[in-house]
Amino acid sequence: MAYQYIRFFNEIGIDDIPLVGGKNASLGEMYQKLIPQGVKVPNGFAITAEAYRYMLESTDSLEPLRETLDALQADNVDSLARCGRKARDIVYSAGLPTDLEDEICRAYQQLQQQYGDELSLAVRSSATAEDLPTASFAGQQDTYLNVNGSAELLEACRRCFASLFTDRAIHYRIDQGFDHFSVALSIGVMKMVRSDLASSGVMFSLDTESGFRDVVFITGAYGLGENVVQGNVDPDEFYVHKPTYLKGHRCVLRRLLGAKKIKMVYNEGNTREATKNIVTSASERERFCLQDEDVLKLADYAIKIEQLYSQAAGKERPMDMEWAKDGLDGELYIVQARPETVASQKQGMMLEDFQLQGSGEVMARGHAVGGKIAKGKAHVITSTKHLAEFRAGEVLVADTTSPDWEPIMKIAAAIVTNRGGRTCHAAIIARELGIPAVIGCDDATETIKSGEQVTVSCAEGDTGKVYSGDIPFRIEQTDLADFKRPKTKIMLNLGNPDLAFKSSFLPNDGVGLARMEFIINEYIKVHPMALLYPDKVENNAEKLEIKRLLLGYKKPADYFVQRLSEGVGTIAAAFYPKPVVVRLSDFKSNEYASLLGGASFEMNEENPMIGFRGASRYTHPAYQEGFALECLAMKRVRDEMGLTNVILMIPFCRRVEEGKRVLEKMAEYGLKQGENDLKIYVMCEIPNNVILIDAFAELFDGFSIGSNDLTQLTLGVDRDSEIVAFDFDERDEGVKTFIRMAVEGAKRNGRYSGICGQAPSDYPEMAEYLIKLGIESMSLNPDTVIKTTLRVLEVEKDLET
User: Fold this and answer.
1) Boundary of a domain, candidates 175, 192, 209
2) pLDDT tens, residue by residue, 465-480
C-alpha cells in the first residue's frame, strides 16, 4: 500500500529525523532493531514533515504565519500569547488537504488490521529539530490520547500541527536559536498502551541528579504517563545497578515509595476531554506501582536502548525514556526514547561543591534537584494569569509547572513546587537551566509567602530544603583534569546513601567507613528487636508508627533487611568495584533506645560509651536476633545484588575470644570469611586491640584505626563532656604511639591497615605522621578529601627527596 506522506515505524530509523522528527525516528529505530531483542514498542506510523509543509503551502498559510511571527516581541509575555494564539489559529484553520486525509485514514485502517477494530490511538507531535543531544524540546508540542475513529484522528492531527506554535514552543525555539520555519512537525500515530489500567512513567540510563552513569533510574505512577511527565504526581522511584545486572544479578538496588495521590484515566462518555484525574485508593498509595520483575525488565530495556544509541553515536549515550504498562495484556512498552540532554552534556572535570554556612527555619522539604544552593525573594504563583508579574532573580513557588511556565522559569533563581517527582517538567527544566529546585513539597505554596527572603538548598542529599532568610553559603571548585593521585589510598567516610552517587566523583580509592547507623536511623527508624517482637513495645504511639512503616511488607524482618540492604547497596554501587568497608551497627544503648520501640529493649547505662555496644551485642541473647537481620541484609548485598566489593567490619571488639564468637555467628548467618571473597576487618579502637594485635591478626583480614574512641580510651577522656573535652587530642604522644604500634603490627602480620577516625581530616600534621608510618589508607570526610589529598601529595614528595 503506497503512501506519499506516511511512513510506518518499520520503514524509518534514526537517520530520518529531517523527515519524521526525533520522536518518530527513535520509535522506528527501536521498532526495527530492539523488538528482536525483546524490547516491546507499540507499532504505528509517522505523518511526515513533508505533509506539514504541503498543508501550509497548499492553503497559502505560510505568508500570514511569517507576518504574525515577525511581529513577535520575544520577551513580552502578552505579545507571545497574542502571536502564539494567532499562529495556531492560522495552522488549525488551514485544515488538511483531502489527499492527506485519505492517506491518514488508510494508514489507520492498516494499523487496525494488526491490533483490531477496537484500537485506540496516541497521537504525538514529533518536531524535526527535537530530541537532539543538546536540546530536549520536551513537552513543547501537544499529545492526544485515547483517540478513536477517523474523525477524531484527523481532528487530533490538525491540533498537533497547530501546536508547533504553542507559546512554550515558540519561546523555546527562540532560546535555542532555531528559526521557526527551519523546524517542521511530523506526527506519530501509534497504538495506545492501556496504562490507564496499570502504570507508566519515565526512566533514565543514569542518575539525573549526579550524572552517575552506572544505574538505571525509573519513576512511575498509576495511570497515564502525563502526570509523571508534567509533575502532577509524586511518583515511585527505583534504581537498578547496571554493572551487576549485566553480570546476571537481578535485584532492585533501591526504591522510594511516592505519594501517587492521583492517576490519569480515560474520561468515558460524550465529553470534550479525553482524560481525567481521579484520586488513587489508599491501598494503591501504600504499595509500589511496579513489581520487582517489572522494574528489572524496564532496566533491561533501558540498557539495550542505551547500547543501541551508543553504538550509533560511537560513544556512550545516556537516554531519557518513557514507558507504559498495558493493563490489558500486562506487557511493558517503550513509548519514547531520546538522548538525555543535561547531565551527559557536562564538559570538563570541574568539581563544584556547594556548602551551607549556617542554618534556619525549614519552611518546606521535597526532592532535591541538582546540588546547588540559591537565594532570593519568594514569589508564589497560583495561576498562569500571574506569570507576567514574576521578576528575574526571584524564587518561583508553585503547585506545579508546565511548559507554559518556561519563560519565567529561565529567569528564576530557584524553583519550588508542591507536586512532582525528580523526572517531572519542573525538574527537567531546572536541570537544563542549572538552578536548584525542590520538588514535591506538598504544601510549599501555603508555608512560603510571596516577598519572603528564602534560601533554597539542594546540597544536603536527596532531600531539598527551603530555609527562611538569607543563609550564607560557599562554593568550592576543583579542577580534576590534572589532579594527581597519591600512593597512600584516599578513601571516604560515608553513611548517607543520598550522597553516594555525588561523592563517587571525588578522587578516591573507595569507602573506608560506611556507617550502618545512619541508614538504620534515617531509613529504618525502628529497633530491630521491636520488629521481631512488636508485642513487647510498650509505647502505643510508637506501635502505630511501626505498623505504618511496615505497610506493604510481608513480614517485619523483610522491612529491616530490604531497607538496610538497599541503603548499604547504594553506597557500594556508587563506588563499585572499589572496596567499600561497611561497619556493622555500632549504636550505644542510649542511641538504640531512641529508635522506635527501642526503649522496651534497652537498659539504662551510666556510661554507654564503654557499655553494651559493638561486638558484645552480636552474640548476646538480648540482641543476637537483631544481629541476624544485619547479617541477612549484608548477605543480600553481596550475594543477590552482586556487590562483592563490600568488606564487613566489626566494631568495638574488646577481646580475641569475642572476635571468634562473632565470626562463628556470622558464618552461621551465611557470611563466612573467605567465601565469595568475603573479607572481614576489625576496628582497632581499644588499647587491647593494639596490645594484642598479633592475636587479632590471626582472626581478621585487616584493621581500621578508629582514632576517636582510641583517643578517649587512651586518655580516659569523654569528648562529649564539656568539662573535660578540652583534653581530647588525637595528637597526644600516647595516642600516636598506639597508632604506630597498630600500623606496624598490621604490616608485621601482612594485614591491611587504614584509619577512619577524624584525625587526618582535622589535622594536617596527623596526615603527615600517618604517611611516614606507611599506613595503607586514610578514610576522610568528603568535604576534606581535596584539601587532605593535596597535603598527602606534598608529604609523599618530600619523603622521596
Assistant:
1) 192
2) 999 999 999 988 877 7
